User: Fold this.
Amino acid sequence: MVGKQVWAFVGAGLGVWISASDAAAQTRPEDTEVWKPLVPVVAPGTVSGAAPSDAIILFDGRDLDQWVTAADKSPAGWIVADGVITVDKARGNIETKRTFRDYQLHLEWRIPADIAGSGQARGNSGVFLASTGSRDQGYEVQILDSYQSSTYVNGQAGAVYKQHPPLANANRKPGEWQTYDIIWRAPVFGPDGVLTRAASVTVLHNGVLVQDNAVLAGETVYIGKPGYKAHGPSPIKLQAHGDPSAPISFRNIWVRELAPR
Ligand code: MG
Assistant:
């Protein structure tokens, strides 16, 4: 039978269209990796990350009182020392006790100076802008060492994972602190659970625009196509990635809630 050709959009922002039959066949992680074109490198300037007066402080160097273990909501067990959080991979993802809709988020992260490994196994973490499950469900902005280290471009630091490569590679060297400033507009769902407005995100990496009001095709996924499922206000989650490289660190995390549009 000669059926009507149905097309599905993948790799939003890249203008990549494939047939629905091809989309159905996407069962491997590499099916959604994009390697070209490469992202231009930009050397960042300095950034002040001081919290403004109306910020909710999520980490000020002292404790993880604002965070829980994502899996069981027990107290977050990542390591806090010298004003810095370091990921404890064995304890899994952590997320905020509070839930959020739209917001402005600042966080700082550091890849260990002696990081080893390559590609996705080199300081992998991530910030999930709305956590919709305890593991990696949600909308991930990738954290990774992408300083002179290559991987698929829609999975490097600053990417909306497997949806939007960053507009620039503004990575600092491993061992140096880096900033993300993120404006998150959560997806809107009708009372029937149907999506009425897609999520969008703007990201500055070390003060350099890397996502410009990028519209998400759904939750970010490792294998297959993104999709939405209805949810309300959600925690912000940090990723304990299972790769064998040394754990990364965070500091100075704050958020400002924004009125929904
Ligand atoms: Mg990650």
Notes: The first strand starts at residue 7 and ends at 10. The CA atoms of residues 176 and 218 lie 32 Å apart. The helical segments are 20-24. Residues 1-20 have pLDDT under 50 and may be disordered.
